């Protein structure tokens, strides 16, 4: 896979979008409102994807062992173009759609992609039906490990949270035996954000880990903070709260990753934790609700570049910027993914 974002000749994005009827739109729901049967069907489909062969060739990508790893490797490959910049929202919208579609088309899943509503269970995380460790959850925390000599780097815009309560392998729920195959990586490995880390696709099997740090959630993902996002006057203000591009600052997107911790804190390979897709379902939901608040001015709003942290010399994202998805899909113009009821998309969120 080649890391590449290019521009096509200018096209009228709005005219290319074919709208679906509202009555046709499939509903994405919060995990907690799903029935036991619906939750079980989703979890079974996730495990089904894990059991399917990869598309990427193993001789070139030795750490890619199954269909799930195709998604992990794709996210790794484009990490430096799709975080803390103008492509975070549009790229991940299509990425989670492709995952939903794979579950449906390849694993006969009849439902839609659920989401994790951060505002419903801010602390402690283990009360959340997403993480309560039951058979219809995504498993809970990792085993506690000694953090005596661990140094925590705190973001500039929030107080330093208390240390996480886990850090080790999962010990309950459906994903106890889930294996991470790629990484781990640290964003510090690639500063100032040039090339991917060495041995990017090496095979490194290990257990899935979590380190619940619930103090990350309230400062950035409370109902009041979501309201502030939804009333943001423009996309730049919205992104400042969702995922600021300034190095060392974090928003609601980063807080969700940090609250789960461990594998979810690996910017490159966080996809290895299946809860990644519920988290980004919430990111997409909040963006969708913000767009719906003023479609005329917000539906086509873009801001930032296609390089992490928006360096001043990088190309600005436009509706004609092409986003790449490797073996998962052909390239998509940003303008093709701006409406959840246009183009390939025909979905909405329950509330």
UniProtKB/TrEMBL annotation:
Domain of life: Eukaryota
Molecular function, one GO term: metal ion binding
Nucleus among keywords: no
Stored InterPro entries: Di-copper_centre_dom_sf (IPR008922), Tyrosinase/Hemocyanin (IPR050316), Tyrosinase_Cu-bd (IPR002227)
Signal peptide boundaries: 1-16
Alphabetized UniProt keyword annotations: Copper, Metal-binding, Oxidoreductase, Signal
Residues of the Tyrosinase copper-binding domain: 273-284
Protein name as catalogued: Tyrosinase central domain protein
Species name: Aspergillus ibericus CBS 121593
């Amino acid at each position: 896979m080649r890391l590449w974002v290019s521009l096509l000749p200018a096209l009228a994005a709005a005219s290319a979008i074919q709208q679906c009827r509202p009555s046709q739109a499939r509903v994405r729901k919060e995990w907690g409102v799903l029935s036991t049967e619906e939750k079980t069907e989703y979890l079974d489909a996730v495990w089904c994807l894990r059991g399917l062969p990869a598309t990427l060739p193993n001789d070139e990508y030795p750490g890619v062992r199954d269909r799930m790893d195709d998604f992990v490797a794709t996210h790794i490959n484009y990490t430096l173009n799709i975080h803390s910049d103008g492509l975070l929202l549009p790229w991940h919208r299509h990425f989670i759609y492709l995952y939903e579609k794979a579950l449906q088309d390849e694993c006969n899943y009849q439902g839609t992609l659920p989401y994790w509503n951060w505002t419903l269970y801010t602390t402690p995380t283990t009360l959340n039906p997403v993480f309560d460790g039951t058979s219809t959850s995504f498993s809970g925390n990792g085993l506690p490990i000694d953090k005596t000599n661990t140094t925590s780097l705190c973001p500039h815009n929030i107080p330093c949270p208390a240390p996480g309560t886990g850090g080790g392998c999962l010990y309950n729920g459906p994903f106890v035996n889930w294996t991470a195959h790629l990484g781990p990586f640290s964003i510090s490995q690639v500063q100032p954000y040039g090339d991917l880390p060495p041995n990017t696709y090496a095979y490194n099997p290990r257990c899935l880990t979590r380190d619940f740090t619930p103090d990350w959630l309230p400062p950035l993902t409370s109902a009041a903070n979501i309201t502030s996002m939804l009333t943001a006057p423009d996309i730049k203000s919205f992104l400042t709260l969702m995922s600021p591009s300034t190095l060392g600052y974090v928003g609601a997107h980063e807080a969700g990753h940090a609250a789960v911790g461990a594998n979810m804190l690996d910017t490159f390979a966080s996809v290895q934790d299946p809860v990644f897709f519920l988290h980004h379902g919430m990111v997409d939901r909040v963006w969708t609700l913000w767009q719906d608040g003023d479609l005329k001015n917000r539906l086509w709003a873009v801001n930032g570049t296609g390089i992490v942290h928006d360096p001043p010399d990088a190309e600005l994202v436009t509706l004609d910027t092409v986003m790449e998805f490797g073996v998962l899909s052909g390239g998509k113009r940003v303008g093709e993914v701006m409406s959840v009821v246009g183009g390939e998309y025909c979905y909405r969120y329950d509330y």
